[in-house]
Prior knowledge:
Helix content is 12%, strand content 47%. By secondary structure, it is mainly β. The strands form two sheets. Strands 1, 3, 4, 5, 6, 8, 9, 10, 11, 12 and 13 form an eleven-stranded mixed sheet that branches. It starts with a strand and ends with a helix. It binds zinc ion (ZN). Its EC number is 4.1.1.5. This is Alpha-acetolactate decarboxylase. Pathway: Polyol metabolism; (R,R)-butane-2,3-diol biosynthesis; (R,R)-butane-2,3-diol from pyruvate: step 2/3.
Amino acid sequence: MNHIHQYCVFSALMQGFSSDGATVSDILSKCNHGLGTVCSLNGEIIIVDGEAYHFTPDDQLHKLAPTDRMPMIVATDFQPTLTKSLDALHMDTLKEALHPFFPAKQNNFIAVRVDATFRRIVYRIGGPQVRPREPLLELAKRQTVKTYENITGTLFGFYSPPYTNGICVAGFHLHFLSEDRRAGGHILEFEAENVELKAAVNTHVHLEFPESEAFNEELMQPELAKDLHLAE
Ligand SMILES: [Zn+2]
């Protein structure tokens, strides 16, 4: 059985909450794949095969230390139940490629991994905040966007159903890690070939909330979640 372990909710990031956090060692004790961000929203995290990597906005890769904290992390002990080899796959055809999970599992959370050669891949790296509680949409205005051609690597992330937006990011939320461990970030578009696609339906979601007072300083505004896809 595949379970999701999530720390914090995406609505909190929209309002700039980025302190506290689950430790890397805690998450890696339960999970081998995932995505998230670091304190002050300084870049993107991807966890692949039990290793946690952090990309900063200057396009550098760092390996996270066991004591590092992640104010937002969505992770899973990934045990794929669907595996396919495909000649080609695009962002737009991903849902279709995940047949029979769509529509049979359309109201579930689905973990997705893609190993491929990317003819073209576009990703972004956000942050960092320049002041405490700077909202995510402000950071999005100065995010780094990178395009690579002919690069091999791995995408990992989740499909979250529309009714969960705000707690999660509705739709596909995928991060990238190149095979040479030099490039990666939050995926905007991709065109892949020689694809191995793996996926699993998650039967449980374990959601941990920050315990600090800062988490409750501002009432979270649900209407802000409609712009989550622009920022996260
Ligand atoms: Zn992301």
